Amino acid sequence: MVYTCRIELNEITPKIWREFQYHPDVTFHQLHNIIQTVMGWENYHLYQFHVNGQVIGLPDPTFEDIEGRKELNARREMVQKHVNKENSVFTYVYDFGDDWQHTITLIKNDSSTSDPAPLCLDGARSCPQEDVGGVWGYQHMLEVLLTPNHPERDQFIDWIREGYDPESFSCEEVNLELQRQKGRLIPKSLVKLSESKKPVKLTKSVLNKHLKQLSNDQLIDLVKACYGASKEMEKFLAVRILGDEAVESLFHEYRKKVENEFFPERGHGKLKLQEAKQAISEFERLTGNVKYSLELKLIYVENGVDFTLTYGDIDERFYNSMVSMYADIIDILNEDETAELFDEYEERIEAIMLKTDGIGWGFHDVLTDLHAQIRWF
To answer: Cα torsion for 301, 307, 313, 318, to the nearest 10°?
Structure first.
């Protein structure tokens, strides 16, 4: 059995839409991942489905208490339980800040098809850039890009991802990505696993033995395949091949990701601290560059302090996150045997501590204690 659905991004003209198939026994969380790939989003933000008066997402007890309603768990609810009649319509909301509303219509329920893998059938236009500012921000971006002498044009050209074309859409590229992710986008009951076999893990010794057996052409093909496997691998290879130039370019990219959670170029900061921290961790993993990683952590805390000085006291979770990152910074300085990092960043690290004087939750006192632990004094 296969569902054929049409999804449209609301309030955008001309329409941004896709027609796609998937097995109805997937969970709503799996459907979310299918939609992310089909539409071309980058899975940076939270989401919800609104189906027959029910809200389905990833429940947070804190928000349940505030909003006074129950949110069903998207990882447990199967689509077929809630959507089972042709022409049924439901809503998918992605990124609660930009508030991208999608309308999904079940246009066909085909019991003759047995392949459970999701498939994109057709579509039109590229989905908006992440964090563009919702419908208004997207329309403003298009207006700026279409106006040669617009004063914001250079700023937007620097900000949009390389090769972005609002009119482009490739079914073939989407289906290649869906096929790559197939194992996590079909019902768990249909994933064929052999219980008698142990999990297969590629060890370094096996990898080394295999690579030694490959010809130069085979090695080249393998590296090319790795390059196309994911955006992370593409960035990793760029660092390994292009060196410092690629590291610096990535630093500026990830710096924007961190800063945008506090002070975006448009609108107000969404303060999704976990996403900012994930960006820092990803940069560390891809580059292994200690100095730039320290710089990103400093930027995180500096922006956090500026944010609370601008908007007032936040909450304990916020300050705990700042303290944890500041402690990481101190650890990096103390692990450096040359004191070069301390010499370069001493003033900024002290400035953070001094600027917090008067902030609540004991924030200043904790940073003062951590600052005193720097071994180079």
So the answer is: -40
Q: Tell me the domain boundaries of the chain.
A: 2-190, 230-371
Strands annotated E in 77-167 = 89-94, 100-110, 119-124
**Which CATH code is given to the segment(s) 2-190?**
3.10.290.30
Cβ atoms of 9 and 17 closer than 8 Å: yes
Phi first, then psi: give them for residue 202, nearest 5 degrees: -85, 115
Please, which residues bridge with residue 345 across strands?
Answer: none
Q: Is the dihedral of CA 253, 256, 260, 266 positive or negative?
A: negative
Do residues 293 and 311 touch, judged by C-beta distance below 8 A? Answer: no
**Spatial distance between the Cα atoms of 276 and 259, rounded to a whole number of angstroms:** 8
Contact 80, 90 (CB under 8 A): no
Structure tokens belonging to residue 256:
């924007």
- Beta-carbon neighbour count of residue 198 at 10 Å? 6
Let me know: does 304 contact 257? Beta carbons within 8 Å. Answer: no
Closest among 375, 372, 367, 370 to 304, alpha carbons compared: 367
Q: Which residue has the tokens 């609660």?
A: 96
For residue 32, give both structure tokens.
């979310």
Lowest model confidence (mean pLDDT) among 34-48, 121-135, 264-278: 264-278
With H, G, I as helix, E, B as strand and everything else as coil, classify residue 48. Answer: strand
Q: Residues 68-122: pLDDT tens digits?
A: 558 999 999 999 999 999 999 999 999 998 999 999 999 999 877 778 899 999 9
